[in-house]
Every structure is written in structure tokens, then in C-alpha cells.
Amino acid sequence: MLNLLVERNSPVIVDAPCGRLSGLRQDGVTSFKGIPFAKPPVGPLRWRAPEPIAPWAGIRDATKFGCIGVQAPSQIEAVMGAIVGEQSEDCLSLNIWTPDVRGEKRPVMVWIHGGAYVFGAGSQGIYNGRNLALRGNVVVVTLNYRLGAFGFLNLSDATDGKAPGTGSEGLADHIAALKWLKTNIAEFGGDPDGITLFGESAGGMSVACLLAMPAARGLFRKAIIQSGPAHVGYDREKSARVAHALLAELGIAPKDGARAAQAPYAAVVKAQLRVLADSRDGQDTRKLGRMPFQPCIDGALLSEQPIASVRAGSAKDVAVLTGTTREEWKLFTAMHPGIRMLTTPSLQKRLVKSFGPEKAAVMMDIYAGTSPFERWNAVMTDRVFRVPAIRLLEAQSVHAPVFSYRFDWRSKLMGGIFGSCHALDIGFVFGTPRLRMATKFFGTGPEAEALSSAIMDSWIAFAKSGDPSNGTAGPWPRYDASARTTMILGDGPPHLVSAPGDAQRAVWDDISDQLLGT
Q1: Could you tell me which of 60, 109, 351 has the C-alpha nearest to residue 226?
Q2: Do 221 and 318 meet the contact criterion of CB atoms below 8 Å apart?
Q3: C-alpha span between 147 and 126 (Å, rounded)
Q4: Is 475 exposed, middle or buried (0-12, 13-18, 19+ CB in 10 A)?
Q5: Helix axes 372-381, 344-355, angle to 10 degrees
Q6: Model confidence over 200-215: pLDDT tens digits?
Q7: CA 243 – CA 93 distance, rounded (Å)
Q8: Which of 178, 190, 399, 500 could form a disulfide with 185 if both were Cys (CB 3.0 to 4.6 A apart)?
Q9: Backbone angles phi, psi at 95, to 5 degrees
Q10: Are 112 and 66 spatial neighbours (Cβ–Cβ below 8 Å)?
């Protein structure tokens, strides 16, 4: 009994280039939490690129998560489980789960969390890396990065250089974390040359950005993008527009932009919330966009939308696995009375406004046979997620192996109104669908367990070999533009289909990249 207790709660000390760290070994997995990978971006470092942190003296406790990035509560937390932890601008930390710090050097899976670039944390319970690490003999890493106005605000252009901030600091945080891992992960049992990125929603968009960024080349070998379009990034003018709106909410004139660096972070968050509210008002969507706080195409870290760079070969030899849930958009509309009550005329009006009368007529015909609510969700799922995923597959297939999936499992929460919505796949990827408070959203039972096993084994196989084929889900051929072979996950046992939803896909062939994604 004594040996069992020691295994369940045993301190482990590593001596890495960053300094000595004390983690905790429990039930076959050792975890290290709250490890800083850059200097705190506070005071004069607010809105500046992350700076390397010097090695520390003594032994640093790594048994507790670090602070989460500054953010406001989200309604999605009520569905997926709360994001807990003290908030601080000093948030640049990462967490590691490893089967063992000794012996072989294992593949490393680095998770970038989602949350529309304004909420979330690597410490959220649903992202616990224990199950993946133990099941696959891999090292799992989650990380925090600056969110919202602190990581994605182009203040420099908005103030004629009087304030720092290019709108790409959050992306720079990802680079800093990956560089830290390159230097240190071997001491945690990981292979610094075997890093796979994976992320969902804004985390998937971040992975897409990293595929495009010269500064990220050589820092990872493979990429898994879940519901994260590579059609992301505002040009400098539009990004500066968001910064102007935030300054106005703070009561700071652009000529006094330097004052923003002294604004209390709570005031910045309140201003950010008002900007977000304006962006979701139909009158201001075109001005600020549906997701105003997102990476800026600053010409330094990001030179164009990632999809364009990937087409040109920016991620040559990086294998990619990507896909979407079947009904992504329902996460955002399921509890929206106005959209649930859509009529056929109001649906047509929405389509005409977005695509013009000729294309709207085609869509009304092709997206037919269901209610206006279902048809609108299908159109928006394709516009924001599925078609961008297909274009990424086609772009990268010229340069490396690519693989496609669609997640069809349906949530039973609230009578099933969420369907197979955005973010529903996350619990199955991490083997955490039984997490308290989120159970009703994800679902439980033998079928849920089998689905989670198939997805975990596929993601692990991909991280190890660049091919998701495995004994649980079966063989998984590469995607190409002729067969469009796609693995269906969640509608019975995993199975392959050719060109799913091809008639709907073809509707978008003549629609430019600028009308897709975020």
C-alpha cells in the first residue's frame, strides 16, 4: 500500500536549461504546471513581443497551474465547464504531462486552446493531458497566451507609433513557447524534433498561422487543426480600426495613445467587452468583423492570410490532419430565438445580403429540404469552417500528406438543440468527456467511450508517424481533391466516405477566400 501511495503522489525534480523544477507523479503520469516560458508581459512589456526568461536559481514549484490570461467570462463556459484560476497579465506559462522524464524521447503534442482569441486557458479541466500521455506514451503540453486586446491589438498603427502593439503579440507568444520547448522538452522525456501542434477554433487558427509564419519553421513537424480556418487575419487598416474603437471606449485620443499602457487591465477588459458587443451588432459587423480581436497581418510575423502562404509552400513537408464538426454553427445559434424562428423569406434575405441575389438563389436550391434554421446553420458551417478546411487540405496536399475528418457525434444537451456543434469534439480528443459539469454536453456511455478511444488513437498515431491510421479507427487514406476521402467520426463506428456534401461544397468554388472564415 505504501508503494502505491508514493506512486500516486510523488515529487519529481528535473534539471532543465530553464532551471530546476519540482513536479508531481500520479498514477503513471508526471505533471509540471505553471512553467513560465517568457518574461511577464507587464509594465513596459505590455503590448510588446515576449522576451526570453532567464534560468532561475533553486527549485521552482511546478505543481500548480499559473495565472490565466486576462479575460471576461463567456457563456460557453456554462456548457463546457468553467475556466478557473486567477487572472493576470503575467500569464505566459505552459503545462506538461509526461509518462516519464527518463528513457526514450517521446513525441510531443502541443495544444493551443481556443476561445475566439478572447477567453480560455491551457489549464482548463477539459484539456487535461493525462489520458493522452498515458494512452499513447506521448508528452502533452498546453499553454497560455495573451488574449483579446492584450495579444491582438494593433495599437501602433492606430496611434502613429505612440503606443506599442502590432496585433500579433499572441502569435509571438506561441513562437516563444515553441522555442522554449525546443530547448527544454528533452528533460521532460520529449523529443524536441518530434513536436506536433494541435488546436481547436482560435487554437486551430493559431496552428494555421504557425504553418504560414517563417519564424515558426523548424519548430514543429506535424499539425492537427480542429475547426480552425486558415482564412484568418485582419489587414493593418482593419486591425487598427479595432484599436481605434478600444481607445475610444477607454476615453484615450490616438495622439495620447501612450496612456493606454498605464490603463488598469480591468478597464481594458471592460472596453474590450463593449467593442465585442458592437462587433456583434448587425450595424457594425462589417466595420469590426465577427471576431475583432484576431491576428493582424502585420508584415513581420504574418505577411498574408495563412491560406495564401500555405498554397505557396510555407509549410512544406508538414503533415496536416484537419476537419470540422458536422454542425459547427449551432453552438452560436442554438439558443438564439431570432435565428431559431427564421422563415424562408428571412433566410433568403440573409443570403442575398451576404452573397448577392444570384448566388443566394443557388444556395436556396442546394441547401434545401430542411427548416430555414437548419439551412442557415449548414450555410454558415460551410462558410466559416468546412470550405476553409477543404481549401487548406487542397493547398497543403501539394506539399505534404494531408488527412480529412468530419465529427458527427450529436450532443443530447437541452434536447439535442446543439447537434454536432463547434467544440463538441474536444472532450473526445482528450478523453475527458466525463468531466464534471461538461458531461451533459459531450455525452457518456459505451458509444462515447469508443468514439473517444478511436479519436485519441488517431491523433496519437498521427503525432507519432504523420499518418492517423491505427487499429482502433482503421486505415485512413490521404485526402486528395479527386476522391476527397474523409473519416467520419461519431456516426456509428469510424468509417470512410468519399466527397461528403459535395453538391454543397461545389457552391463555394467561385467564392473568394475573402468571403470565407472569420
Answers
A1: 109
A2: yes
A3: 19
A4: exposed
A5: 20
A6: 999 999 999 999 999 9
A7: 26
A8: 190
A9: -130, 145
A10: no
CA distance linking residue 268 with residue 277, whole number of Å = 14
Grade residue 180 by pLDDT with cuts at 50, 70 and 90. very high
Task: Work out the number of other CB atoms within 10 angstroms of the CB of residue 51.
Answer: 13
Strands 485-490 and 402-407: parallel
Q: Go through the domains of the chain in sequence order and give each one's CATH number.
A: 2-515 (3.40.50.1820)
For range 33-48, the mean pLDDT: 97
Give the residue among 294, 291, 246 at the shortest CA–CA distance from 268: 246
Instruction: Give me the sign of the Cα torsion angle 314, 36, 183, 112.
Output: negative
* Catalytic site residue from 201, 309, 404, 420: 201
Out of 309, 411, 422, 458, the active site residue is: 422
Contact (CB, 8 A) for 229 and 143: no
Task: Give 122's contacts (C-beta < 8 A, 6+ positions apart).
Answer: 93, 94, 95, 111, 113, 142, 143, 144
How would you label 87-116 residue by residue, b for 16+ Cβ within 10 Å and e otherwise? bebbbbbbbbbbbbbeeeebbbbbbbbbbb
- Residue 380: name the closest of 416, 342, 436, 428 by CA: 342
Cell of 365: 436550391
Q: Which residues contact 293 (CB under 8 A, 6 or more apart)?
A: 116, 117, 118, 147, 148, 149, 151, 152, 153, 242, 272, 275, 276
Instruction: Specify whether 244 is catalytic.
Output: no
User: pLDDT digits over 375-387, tens only?
Assistant: 999 999 999 999 9
Q: Where are the alpha helices (DSSP H) in 90-164?
A: 130-136, 148-151, 155-158
**DSSP 3-state of 443:** coil
pLDDT score for 81? 63
The CA distances from residue 168 to 14, 48, 53, 153, 308, in Å, are 33, 9, 20, 8, 18
Three cell numbers written together for 90:
503575467
Contacts of 473 (CB under 8 A, 6+ apart): 454, 455, 457, 458, 487, 489, 494
- Residue-averaged pLDDT of the chain: 93
Phi, psi (degrees; rounded to nearest 5) at 339: -80, -35
Catalytic: 206?
no
201 in active site: yes
Cell digits of residue 466: 504523420
| Annotated catalytic residue within 328, 399, 404, 411 | 328
Q: Are 200 and 227 in contact (CB under 8 A)?
A: yes
